[in-house]
Amino acid sequence: MKPLEIESLSFSIIDREAGKHDFPAEQWNIVQRMIHTSADFEYMKTICFHPKAISNGIKAIRSGKPIITDTEMAKSGIRKTETAHFKIPVSCLIGNEDVKQYAKKHGTTRAFAAVDLAADIMEGGIYVVGNAPTALLRLIELVKEKKANPALIIGLPVGFVNAAESKAELTALDYPYISNTGRKGGSNIAASVVNALLIMAFKNTII
């Protein structure tokens, strides 16, 4: 089978096994791709959408606003065709030398430091957290202090320490987010959410 045939069949299987649900089409596009990435139907129960999340994300994409990730893995998983079409800069500062020095000086994680140093360039863009709860917690702090203003926060850190707690804090915030409850998540899942948004933005643009 060709790659597109495999993907199409996978989505058909997901639709069949998911059964009836109450997700609007745009939300289902995202949940479906998360399941496709993970083979985990639990995301149907744990996914959380702010009412403005999808519209804000698609608007940011169509405007060519930056996408910033907390890991190189998330960055590498984001589709190139659509980001090139919209001339979107995709970056991850985790390996930046300034980030390393900032983290060392202030005794923080590099993920935390990267959020601080990305505050200016994330304006109107999408910040993607798929690994580090410290990054998400710091981003929430900056948003509350009005020192950061991304159009959308994709908060899907994974793990046992502060992953669930950081997502709970995000979903309690009246700010555009796509997140989930619990410990599950990851860079691949976060990238799949971005990819679903990119595909929706691209298809609606070329129609």
From TrEMBL:
Give UniProt keywords alphabetically: Cobalamin biosynthesis, Isomerase
Question: InterPro entries recorded for this chain?
Answer: Cbl_synth_CobH/CbiC, CobH/CbiC_sf
What would you give as a GO molecular function for this chain, any one?
Answer: precorrin-8X methylmutase activity
List residues of the Cobalamin biosynthesis precorrin-8X methylmutase CobH/CbiC domain: 5-199
Query: Which pathway does it serve?
Result: Cofactor biosynthesis; adenosylcobalamin biosynthesis
Q: Quote the Pfam families the UniProt record gives.
A: CbiC
In which domain of life is the source organism classified? Bacteria
Q: Which GO terms describe its biological process?
A: cobalamin biosynthetic process
Family, as annotated: Belongs to the CobH/CbiC family.
Q: What is this protein called?
A: Cobalt-precorrin-8 methylmutase
The organism of origin for this protein: Desulfonema limicola
